[in-house]
Structure formats: C-alpha cells, structure tokens
Queue: 4 jobs
Job 1
Amino acid sequence: MREFYNENKERIDRILFLILVTVAFYLFFTVFFVYLSPFFIGLIIALVMEPLNRLLERKMGFKRWVGSLLCLLVFIAVVGSLGAWLVSTLVRQVTSFAESAPMHITELSARLDEANVWLQRFTVHLPDGWYIPNIEEMLPAALGLFFGGGMAETGLRTLGGVPDFFLNLILGLVSAYFFMSDGKRIFRFVKNICPRWIRGQMRQTKKGLTLAMSGYFRAQAILMVMVGVISIAGLLILRNPYALLLGLLFAALDFLPILGPALVLLPWALISVIMGNMRQAIGLLVIWGIITIARQVLQPKILGTQMGAHPLASLMSIYIGFRIFGLFGLIIGPTLLMIIIAIFDTNEERNAIM
C-alpha cells in the first residue's frame, strides 16, 4: 500500500485535497454559515479592497493599519452613498405614486367593475347551486389573509431581525478591518496549523484559483452588463422615463440566484394587467423572457470561457450546486468548479476531467 501511495503520491494527494475541500464547503454553507456569516462577509470585503490597500501601502507609503482603515472608510462611503441614493430615489418614486394614487384607484375600480361583469356572465352558465363571489366579496378576505396573517408575521420577523442585522453589519465591518490589517498573520496561522501535504496543495492551487476567481467575477460582470443593456433597451422601447435607473437596478438584481430582475418585472407586469395596460405588461414579460433565455444560454459559455472550463462543466456545476445547496448553490457550484480546475491545473488530468 505504501509503495502504491509513493508511486501515485501527487495524484492521491490532489484527490484527497479535493474531497477535503468539497466536504469543508458543504459543512460551511449548510451548518456553520449561520454562525460565521459576518466574518465571511468581512473576508469578502477585505479581498475586494485588497488592491487599493496594497496600493496605499506600497505606492503611497501608508502603514498597513492606516491603509486598512482608509480602505474601510472608502468602502463604507461608497456603499453608504449608493444606499442613500437608492433610498432617496425610492422615496421620490413612492411620493410620486402616492400623489397620483386617486387616479390609479379610480382606474382600478373601473377594472374591478369590468371583472365583476365578466364573472356574472360566467356564473349564468354554471350548474345550479354553484356560486362565484364577486370581487367586492373576495377582496376583503384576500386582504385580511395577506395583512392579518402572512404580512403581520413577515413584519414581526423583519422587526425582530433588525438588531441581528446591525450586529452582523458591525461584526462584518470590524472583521473586514482585521482581515485587511492582519491578513498575512491570520493566513500564516491557518497555514501553519494545516498538515504539510495540505499546505503543499494550497500553495500549488493558489495561483490557479486566483485566476479562476478573477475569471468568475469577470463573467458575472459581463452577465450583469448584458442584463442591464437588455433592460434599458426594452424599457426605452416602452418609453419608460426611468429606463436607465431601472436597468441599473435589474443589472444589480441579476446577481441574486434565480430571482434576479423577475423580483421586480413579474409583479410589475401583474399590476399592469390589473390596471389594464396590456402593452406594458406584455413588454415587461418580453424583457423578462429575453433576459432569462439569454442568461441561461450564455451563462455556461461565458463562465466556461472566463474560468477556463468547458461550458458543459460550468452547466453541471450550476445544476449540482443548486441541487445540493439550494439557491446559493448557483454561486457555490461554480466556485467548487474553480477549485477543481485550480487543483488539477498543473497536471494533465485537467484535460481528462474538463
């Protein structure tokens, strides 16, 4: 057995490392993520701000802790400004809608009357004893169920989660600072407690994983730009005055697994149908359909090209990740694929797998 291991040491070590990483990913995102999510977010922030931090340290002569503090302040300023802009825009839109609410209510009332007439015509052809309530009878019950049950429960959950949100936010920002200022010491400690063979695999994997990760984010950026262009073009055709703003919003929402722009487009289309604006409803559904088809067709190809994997491997990683991890598996799956590519990148075995 020892002789067999010595003869195939590199291959066996890589397979064992791949199994270890896969199990670690599974345990982290299914068991430990709820406890470690603020620190994971802090790590992501630190990695995103690392180029700026390195520039401040090497080119401008700032001490590491000073550069890390400046990077954190820049991040807070950028995200805070973007959030303030989105909130102010939303407030303006809600105010504008509230001012025109009487007109919308009148139009909605007319549509409900038309729906009642259609229901009455349909009721005539039903067998004796069958009865369909009119809109005025169904609407209070539906609203009571929505606001009295699900809406109230959701509101209570949201209010209860506010303290947790701010606690996680503070922990995330503080941990981001420590990752930026003491990252080398932290990673050195983690590396030193790992067995030697794992350290060797991590050293060989690091370069390939860095390239694959950059490719993954390039692919996501390309997909988001594609969604933004389709959205803006479609909304301009519909003569929407907020085409640019909504297009940028849909591009940002595209990062959400499965939901994406559908989170806004589908309810908007339904409201348009109720309001009798069939042209707008059909247009919104067409925009959503084009985005969905384009993303599903192009995503494996773009991911594969940017990450250096075959599109079939990218497609399989998306599907398997979704089946194992749920919605977040659409991100975790390609990430595991990147690690697999990085592990076998320096060996001809990569050609056999990909």
Job 2
Amino acid sequence: MTMNNKTRGDYFLGLCLIILIFLLYRSGFFTVEAWQNFVDHFYQNFIEKDRYMMLVKGLRSTIFMTLFATLIGVAVGIILSVIRVAHAGGIHIPVLNALADCYIAVLRGTPAMVQLLIWNFTIFASARDLNKMYIAILAFGLNSGAYVAEIFRGGIEAIDRGQMEAARSLGLSYGKSMRLVILPQAIRNVVPMLFNEFIVLLKETSVAGYIGIDDLTRAGQNIQALTMEHSQPLIMVAIIYLLIVMFLSYLVRRLEKYLSRSRRG
C-alpha cells in the first residue's frame, strides 16, 4: 500500500514537529524560568511604549510598496510581452524588440537590491526631497516588469494561433485582436502566476530599509536597536511574512481550482 503525496507531506510535517518539540525540550524551553524570560522580553519588545505599532506601520509600508510596485510591473510586463510576441509573429519592430530584450536581460540579470541602490544613490541622487517610498516602488515595479513580461509572453503564446487568425479574418487590426481577443484569455491563464510574482515581490521589498524606508524588516531592526534584543523582533518579522505568504498561497490554490473548474465547465 503506497502513500499519496498528501499523506507523505503530512507524515513529513508531523516528523518535523516532533523533532522541533524534542529540541525545544532539550533546550529547556518548556521550563517556568524560560517562559517567564520569554514573556518579559516579549513585553519589552512589543508592548512597552506600544512598540508593536512600529511593526504595524512597517507592515503597512511593505504592503503599500508591494501593491503599487505590482501594478507598475503588470503594466510594464504587458507592454514588453506584446512587443516581443508581435515581433515573433511577423510584425517587424526590431528596435523595440531589441530594447525589450535588453530590458528583460538586464533587470532579470541583476539583483533587485543593487537596482534599488542605483535608483536611489545614482539616478535620484540629486532629488533629496523625493519620497524614498516612490523610488522603491519604481525600482521594484520595473524589476517586477521584467519577470511579468515573461509570464505574459508565455500566456499569450499558449493561446491557439487560430484565435488571432479568426480575429484578423473578421477585420480586426492586430492591435485590436490582441487587446480584445488574445490578452483577456492570456490574463485569465496567468493570474495564478501573477499572484506568485506578488508573493516574491513582497519578500523582495524587505531590502527597502537600505535606502531608509521603515518597512516591516526595518521595523524589526529598529526594535532591536531600542531593546538590545536580537531574537524576538526578527522572529516576529519572519512570522508575519510567513503568515502573509501562507494566506496568499492559499488564495492562489483556491483561484487555480476555480479557474480549472470554469475551464472544464
């Protein structure tokens, strides 16, 4: 009798939980003194002087930054993917296609943190009054656009060629055929992957503190500096990220099931 993937996953998770409990027991985590020490540090880190509000404000900045960077990435990605697909489909736009290829290669080939630093300390070095949040949104959005372009390109190329031919035979121009027939179907196909890109971008914004933005990670570091406690603040930040990612992953799975049912229907 063989175990299916879900059973194996549950077995592995249970084994990891047992090992974790054993290690915590061996380290004295379940003693009264350890719990009293944990509670005291928790109060000092998050309750005293309402320091938990630093995490709340940092989380708000992280979500704001991720949301608007995703919107920029989707807009840029659609434009780049259409350019590349149109060129491959026989519309001769070599200059635009070369620029799109170069953009995607450079933005995907360099770390997002390096791009963020270049935008802040080189391109906008003289713009001292410019809000750092706008710089971060632009940097992360343009970086995400390179990945979204490949997502949309795959989604467009997955649409049967007969769809475009049928639209053109009805008298629609290439642009209208792409906008009214192809893109709506492609977007429907790539929505789950766009959610995954949102999750990746959410975690990438954790480096925004390098240019002085008090995001969620920077909030944890600020609490560290105030309380001289190095464990709990960062562990709390990690837990918050994990909970958000788990919730978004759950939404992605539900969305994929809904889309698969609608296709079969």
Job 3
Amino acid sequence: MLDTKNFVLKTGVRTFEAAAYLRRKGANTLTVKEMFSGSIDTYREKVDFVVNSEVFRGCAISGMEKQAKDIRIAAAQAADEMLTLQGIVASFVLFKAENKLNISARSYGRLNVQLVMEKLGGGGHQTMAATQLVNTPLESAVEQLKLAIAEVIDNSEE
C-alpha cells in the first residue's frame, strides 16, 4: 500500500496478485490502515500545509516556518495530498527541521521533480525528490523553487 500509494502508482498484474495472496493468507487492510495512522496534531499540520498552499505553473507550493515533532510526516503526507487536487502536476512542501529548510517534492510523472530538486542541490527520482537548504529563509527558498520549476518546465517545452 505504501509503495503504490494505495494502488495508484507503479501497479501491475503482479501487484494485485501479491495483494490477493496476502489477503488469502489473512492480511487485513484495516490493520494496515491502523499501523500507518497518525496523530491529530500531525493531521492538523498536514491540513495547514494543504490549506495554505499556492499554485505556481500547475505546482502546489506550501511552506511552514514552525518546527513540530512529526513535521516530516505531515509534509510528506501534504505533498501526496496536494497531488490529488485538480490541475496540480507536482507538489512542493517546505519545512524547517534540524536548522535546515527541507523541500519535499512529489508528482505523478508529468513534471520531473528530480530535475527541479537537482537545481537546488538535491535529488531523488522523477516522482519523488527532496533537498535541504542551509541558512535560507522560507521566502527566499520559495522564490528559488519557483525559478527552478519555471526553468524545468520551460526546458521541457522546447
């Protein structure tokens, strides 16, 4: 369920065959759901990211200055959630952790987020990537991110 984003990405016949096998052996989807449930505080942080996002060239971008206990989990979940919004091809969530500004990036493949993150010193792969910026205020990081997004989109249109 995690690797496929609840059977949305990277699924094929073998994926469903494996799921059917596990079900026959007693796997319970409710137990899996409970294993990955989060706290109400983490959920609130995720919602804050989503609600406070802006759209730039088909990309949802959201950032938060405050540091929280499970901010990495909330940021990753928010990045996934923003991809479900109509017209969004990629999502980027910026958050502070351990005195660094982190950017978590997601897409379903229409925009290569690895290329965007590489422009900011990070990496990953086409649908999931990240980077960390040191001594960079949130507003400055958002502007750098927008420039990187625009450059990748403009280069892909050529």
Job 4
Amino acid sequence: MIGHLSDYMPQELRTMAVRMHGLGGPEVLRWEEVDVPEPERGEVLVRHEAVGLNYADTYHRSGLYPLPSLPAVTLPTIMGVEAAGVVEAVGPSAARQPTPDGTAIFQPGDRVAYGDVRGAYCVRRVVPANRLVHLPDCVDFEHAAAAMLKGMTSWYLCRRTYRLRAGETVLVNGAAGGVGTILSQWCKALGGTVIGTVGSAEKGCIAREHGCEHVILYEEEDFVERVHEITGGKGVPVVFDGVGAATFDGSLKCLSRFGMMIAYGNASGVVAPFNILRLTAKCLTLVRPSVMAHVQCRADLEEATAELFGHIEADRIRITIGQRFPLAEAAEAHRALESRRTHGCTVLLP
C-alpha cells in the first residue's frame, strides 16, 4: 500500500481511465492510460474499488448537462462523479492538519467514498479531502459506489426539497431504477405510502420489493387514472419524477391542490417547454433541483451521508446492484442504461 508522498514517485504514477474525447454517443468513450497528478495540500490519492454509473454521466457525455470548462479545449476528460475505494496517499501536511473547512483527517488505508467529484472513471485519482466521507463497516465498496450520488439525491428529494410527513402518499416515477429503489424505501421509512410507476412487470416486482405499496405499469395503464383511484380522487401532494418527457404531463395531473412536482431526471428525454400558467388552477409548485447544490456545504454532505448510512445499517434501505460491468466497458454500460435495460444500481469495476 502507498503511504505518504515520500513512499512513491508521483511523476511515475499512471493509471487506466475512461476518457470522453468529444460530445456524442458511447463511442466517444475510450479506455486509456493517463498520468495521476501529485496530491496537494487538502487532497488525497484514492485507489478505486468500485465506480457508480448514473444518468448524469450520459448527460455529460451527450452535452445535455454541460461540463465545467467545456467546450473542446479541455477534452479529453475523465467521466463519472461517484466512487468508493482506499486512501493510498495524502498531500503535504494533510495527515497532520485538517483541511481548511475543518473536515476529518484522512490517512492511508482509510475506506472512503464520494458522490459529487467529476473524474471517477479511473483506477486511481486525486480527490479533494473535503468531498470524501469515511465508509462505515456496514457498507462495502460496491454498495457505497452504487449509493453515494443516488442516495444523496434521495435524501434531498424527500428530506429537503419536499419534507415528507408520515401518512402522506407520494408518486415515484421510475421506481425500479437506481434513485427510485432508494427513494421509495426512504419514503416508506419516513412513514409514507409509495405509488411507483415502472415500465415492465419485471420492474414492477422490483419496485414492490423496494418500498412501493402500489405499482403502476405506465406503458400499459393510465397512471393518472390509477393514481386518482388509489387516492380516492385527491391526488398526491408530491411527485418525484426522474423519467422526464414520458411522464411529465401526467405527473402534473396526479397532483393535489398545492402539490409539488419535482423533476429531477430525464431518463425518457427532456421535458418540452410548456406554459407555466398550467400550474395556476391547482396552485402547483414545480422544482428542478440538483444534488450538487444540496451538498455543497460540508455539513450538508455529512448530514446526507450519515442519514443514508444509518438507514442502510438499520436495514431500512437496501441498495440493489442490478448490473456490474468492467470499468473498461463503460461504453456498453452507458448503452444498457440509456436503452433502459437496467434495474436498480449499476457499478463499474476497475
């Protein structure tokens, strides 16, 4: 195991990574060798044991979500935002002093994870210490990589953007996906009743196993009609929608008076522009939040992950890994995700 900086030659350290060489389809991703920079003060060198796959990765690749510092002058660039692994080295003085914002000190050998730092599709990398969290013994590397971004997303959806109260009935679109399976369980743990929409009978079984009391196959049933049947015509106070274009209009119709529509993803495509006056009749709220804004502060990052790990340890939330791909085959993993052939969470293994 690598220790402090003096234990290795940073200029000779190289690693394998998946880099994006342009905006476009999965074919722009290439598996290649790259240099690993020397960690500076407040940074640590992490060897990844598992990397998470997210829809946001495909949006970065396609250009739907612009990457910081693009266009092409910064390409090629390493993709991905979440991973888990082991600290191999620390920057100068980082072993003896806390990082500037008072975060915990990391040492070689620590088990760590992160969920909001671009550049995760690699075997080794340097990470800012203030974006890392320690992993509890109850969470292994694969489940940590699968859960970090999607777990923090679920946290802000039902704990910050909409503060779910016990006894409320909510609608989760895409309930068998990575966020959907975690969010549904989190809502149930808070005392909510979860209606989940899915695209197939197989995914319906998965949704039921992960907290959904009611499951709707939205390609076979009128999910608006079913939601109103389930709720006695009242509708739901909140819709968590990670599907996008295919469910957006119907989701608005599922809301009760003063309801909140939370559009956090685009799995089926981007929602087309619409007339905001449509929100007026029932005095609806439409929100488009992001995980990065909610965990920008170190205290919020620690609160989110502490709650997530606590639910995992108490077995209130089970992280289901539906697919595993070699990191070198990230392009194929993207194809599977975009074709909606996946369920639960997907991890890439270095």
